[in-house]
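Note to self: user wants both folds in one dump. Writing first protein now.
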Amino acid sequence: MRNPIVGGPFIPTCTAAEALARLKSGNSRFVRGKVHFPTVQKEVLADLVKGQKPYATILGCSDSRVPPELVFGAGLGDLFIVRVAGNVLGASIAGTLQYASAYLHTPLFVVMGHHGCGAVQAAIAAKFHGARPPGRIRALLANILPALDDLDATLPPAQLLQAAVESNVRRTMRLLLDSPEGMARSREGTVKLVGAVYELESGLVRFLD
């Protein structure tokens, strides 16, 4: 298949399992302080002009402390990244992810939340403590609130937030899997979807079952 936007054939460069292994290896290097980002050579830039072949697509939070390229020790062109507060799913986000599947053919999709997520924390405050954030933020939090329905509001704040972050990741995954595109890809067996949580304290990415 040719990409109607940037042109050129796209053939997956690795399997979903290989892509996941690359992410885990890159994060291990990051945690051990072994990630280095040398000055990009002109040859690399010239090659990237021809097109992109990312091996994974990541839906993550906009939080400045969680840059996926650094966290996974990835280089230019390695990852197709969508970032939005609370790693929530909206129409434009879903369309971007569908583009990654249909035209970039990334074999692996990751929904990644993180410890201390401010958007999830605001959703907790709205649901359990009656907080009322400004209008457009309320629209954002509406995407997170359903993930809190089955949580125990009596948990200590830190535990409640951690449980809410993971529940929010799992809800976004369910929405993706239940979409027509997600169900079609599942039947084909061509794409793998995984959830993950980034630990601010350690730099470790914990992949969910």
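First done. Writing the second protein, which came from a different request thread.
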Amino acid sequence: MFDLRWIRENPDAFDQGLAKRGQAPRAAEVVALDAERRAVQTHLQEAQSRRNELSKRVGAARGAGEDAAELIAEVGSLKEAIQAGEVENRSLAERLEALLSELPNLPADDVPVGEDEAANVELRRHGAPPQLEFKPKQHYELGEDLAEMDFETAARLSGSRFVVLSGQLARLERALAAFMLDVHTAEFGYLEVIPPYLVRAHTAYGTGNLPRFEEDLFKTTDGFYLIPTAEMPLTNLVRERILDEGELPRRFTAFTPCFRSEAGAAGKDTRGMIRQHQFSKVELVSITVPEESEAEHERMTACAETVLQRLGLHYRVVVLSSGDMGAAARKTYDIEVWLPGQGTFREISSCSNCGDYQARRMDARFRPQGQKGTRFVHTLNGSGLAVGRTMIAILENFQNADGSVRLPQALVPYMNGVERIARPA
């Protein structure tokens, strides 16, 4: 959501920010609707003051034994006018909220402007691709050869875009999650949380998933939504709260399943585990004061990078263009891991600074030390990492010519000492 006063005072800047997102100008519409609502509120206040004044005069007239019929009639008419004004005020507020809730966050000034991923800018690379002396296989070929990645059975159970993992690959997913959680909690100070996997509409609205992206969510018959990422419940942990500045930053992490309908993804990544309806992810969420959110963004991205570095995986970091970012973000870094089987980089983490966009939707505030009043917090989220895609990267980068897979040393303790995955005899 947005600061209405800022829009009133900076309509051109608001429209310019929307233009970077490929959106039409909306400032004039917002300002006009806001002005109409404020005019109604002014009339309501005046009518309420007049009614209070008349009510006192009615009491005084009755006390003096005077006729108060005219005063009482005017009080009655004012009551009706106030009730009508309250209805109109609610209607205008709902229209204004509906208009603003459909608009994406405005990009930060240093975000590259472009329509899509073609305008993304690479910032850095880490490591180098493995030098394989054979033609590398893709992860689903390796997984099926290992007899521990079964898409056919998953399709019989649930349809397309699902997988059944078993044996060492099932253990590997658990090991990856435990490794990531240990790094983020023990070394980087994130608080581990097990949140609900089903949330109500107001929770999805708070992070910006509703109303714009309802088609991407799975909804139950009784009004719950399956979480598309733990960002949704973790960010809402501070919903409708006023925190003390000394409590910030607050950092949360969670390992959860994630559920996405993948609406509009027909024909994309139909083979394998890249794009599924159900997958697992370790999520990072930070709640900060506005002055620290940019530094927190860099820190969060570095936390996610550390996991890849410990696993010995080649990756790059790109800053997303204004047209490629998620709607709630004001700036996003994507971390893309190298996949030899595909011969390309693929996203494994997105780390986004949302500014106060989500906080305004959730009414999440903090009380600055030594100051009166409250301010909205800034929220950030990132993958630390997508567990399934990390498994994909390990399978493809550490594959051997015989189809077995060597495991990174950092994972061996989590795999009960297993250093190599091979097809069961």
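Dump finished. Worth passing along: Residues 319 and 333 are 5 Å apart (CA to CA).
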